[in-house]
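Posting this for the archive.
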Amino acid sequence: MSRESTPAERVLQAKLAAHKKWAITDPVEGTKAARAAFNDRFANQADQDVKAAGQPPLSDAERSRRAEHLRAAYFAGLALKSAQARRKKAAPPGTRPAASPRRSHERREANISQPCSDKAGASPPGAHPAESARRNHVSEGPTLVAAAPGAAA
């Protein structure tokens, strides 16, 4: 009488098998074939691009050079997607994602130049804390500082 495993049991069985495998296998050797297949993907893509363009076959050096650029482009694309996903996740639902960091100083300056809200001493959202102090400063005339003994007047 065999009983089928539940999905949770299958996960545990897979973890058990993986730990046993990596306990006796060198990780570099164990993943060598997978790394080679991953890198061959870009070399094959370089060959296909040349073939589609009707150009003569590439030399090994040129094929390798193009494959490296295709690999770099692949990872740059992943980084872009990751940044976009993080920005989207950080934005509250129903709002637009924040502007790029190089524009943050412009938003700060725009917030500083806006009039204060109806609350006394309140600064607009995003204003620098020092701005609140500057707005609330009331000058009562010049401040007199006592001169140090022996100082020229």
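The CA atoms of residues 99 and 151 lie 54 Å apart. The helical segments are 7-24, 27-30, 32-52, 60-90, 104-113, 129-136.
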